[in-house]
Amino acid sequence: QQHRREQRPAMTLAQAAWLTQLMVSRSRTFSALSQQGWVRSARRALQDAQYAVQLSESILADDARGRAVAWERLAETHEAVRDIEGAILAYEQLLRVEPSFDPRLSPAVSAKRGVQELVLISHRRGLENAVEVREGLLQAEQASRESITRRALQDVERLRNLVDQDIGTLERVAEERGLKAGS
Q1: N or C: fewer beta carbons within 10 Å in the chain?
Q2: Rounded CA gap, 107 and 91, in Å?
Q3: Contacts 24+ apart (CB under 8 A), 98-102
Q4: Helix %, strand %, coil % of the chain (to 5)
Q5: Helix H or strand E encompassing 170
Q6: How far is CA 84 from the centre of its chain?
Q7: What is the residue-level pLDDT of the chain in tens, covering all 183 positions?
Q8: CA-to-CA distance for 178 and 172, rounded, in angstroms?
Q9: 3-class SS at 20?
Q10: How many CB atoms are closer than 10 A to CB 55?
């Protein structure tokens, strides 16, 4: 007897939209639990937001609103786990899918997208500033290493000179004693 796999019908657009919304809602729930100290909740929130984006991008390609909701949630989740680079990428996608100037948007959603554009700009500047600070710290570290190395080499050179002087003194003393002993 052969067991046949049942052919399941493909997911309908309505089912995909419902599942995407469910993943977005569940991601929000996990984020709330994370803020209450549930350890693994932040990771689960991020996974659900990523899944919502995957669903919306693969199945709901013509549903800009559904895609925007998924990208928005992913951006928020990246912010919550302090992944600013991830948040930047998600906000960029969100604003490509649903820009603030889209005439189909309600005034409230348009204003929200405008604020998100400002958040995106702020994140980019913050990231640029962090990179500059990091580069400055690396330069300071390098300069500090060079300074410490230079001082260490100077100390070694002074010690070498002192040892050479002491050896010279010992040799002179030995000669004088040797000469005096031999006389």
Answers
A1: N
A2: 19
A3: 98/64, 98/65, 98/67, 98/68
A4: 80, 0, 20
A5: helix 107-182
A6: 6
A7: 555 666 777 888 899 899 999 999 999 999 999 989 888 999 999 999 999 999 999 888 888 899 999 999 999 999 999 999 999 999 999 999 999 999 999 999 999 999 999 999 999 999 888 888 888 888 888 888 888 888 888 888 888 888 889 888 888 888 888 766 555
A8: 9
A9: helix
A10: 23
Report the predicted TM-score, pTM, of the whole model to 2 decimal places. 0.68
Tokens 């204003």 appear where? 111
Amino acid identity of 46? L
Structure tokens at 107: 């005034």
Q: The tokens 């500090």 sit on which residue?
A: 144
Q: What is the DSSP string of 52-109?
A: HHHHHHHT-TT-HHHHHHHHHHHHHHHHHTT-HHHHHHHHHHHHHHS-TT-TTS-HHH
- φ/ψ of residue 18, rounded to 5: -65, -45
